[in-house]
Amino acid sequence: xxxxxxxxxxxxxxxxxxxxxxxxxxxxxxxxxxxxxxxxxxxxxxxxxxxxxxxxxxxxxxxxxxxxxxxxxxxxxxxxxxxxxxxxxxxxxxxxxxxxxxxxxxxxxxxxxxxxxxxxxxxx
Amino acid sequence: xxxxxxxxxxxxxxxxxxxxxxxxxxxxxxxxxxxxxxxxxxxxxxxxxxxxxxxxxxxxxxxxxxxxxxxxxxxxxxxxxxxxxxxxxxxxxxxxxxxxxxxxxxxxxxxxxxxxxxxxxxxxxxxxxxxxxxxxxxxxxxxxxxxxxxxxxxxxxxxxxxxxxxxxxxxxxxxxxxxxxxxxxxxxxxxxxxxxxxxxxxxxxxxxxxxxxxxxxxxxxxxxxxxxxxxxxxxxxxxxxxxxxxxxxxxxxxxxxxxxxxxxxxxxxx
Lengths: 124, 270
Hints:
The complex is a heterodimer. By secondary structure, chain A is mostly beta strands. Chain A is 8% helix and 38% strand.
């Protein structure tokens, strides 16, 4: 079973999303695709050089742990984020530019909390 | 006799200090570059020549057109091919080396510019990186006392409100261990870079960077970078790149992604 079929709640679509400033090559991400992850926040690593958000997606009973890379906490904090913006257990939809090789990872674009409707990042 | 010697020694010290002070600008004449600043635009070093237009550093097929010699154009093309293959790692990914110069003038996140009579410090949050520009009247070290370093040796002077400095002693890129930007630009150890930094107005800074490199370039290469002042009270923070680096480099030069357990999640690591 291919992961891409299971986790995509929204349509894969072309996107001209600007990648986050990274300390590394972004060659692993497909910035022509956007994947929507419907899941729950497991953990946030509010660390340099990148914030990492672990999102658990339920795939028909199989829990898949996605690793979502954000900007640095420094830059995110200057753009309204806090270390506590995402909390463990938060129900979210997260949009990412996925890893090209199909593994459960991606570059953060934006997110929406399913309970409050609040959004962060790019969410048009 | 002893008194006379002390008097002479005192005079020599006084003359030495006076000479040093004479070569430094008075604090009151120095411009106010305080605040936190951010480079305008993405991290393509020479945005006037980048192809395709608005291409992003690190994306396959994106390149600039410095006046490279044939030898360095060939090196650049080789790097561009590695980017296409996903095997051109950014040397800073390992979190152990500085960006170097002139790349330090072309990084994301924020800057602070600390102006003192003896030196001006460019403090790049990302990296972190520090560029020291000495304005105390010193000269560059003689060639046989200078070795290639990432950021080189910068000596400057004030021309009114403009800081003019020359940077020498840059490390030659070997196996792309120092780059100018993520499109694969590199320079040689013969590079001499003259930079003119000034405040254009209360909220904008400009650095006009002219690169001369007898090995790598057929002509001078002029690039202008601008920096916008962020709102008063903006913080610059510690950037501990090695704190949680989940992007190591594989043996083939591929940038990997680690899962929370510290193991690569990539399907192929090499």
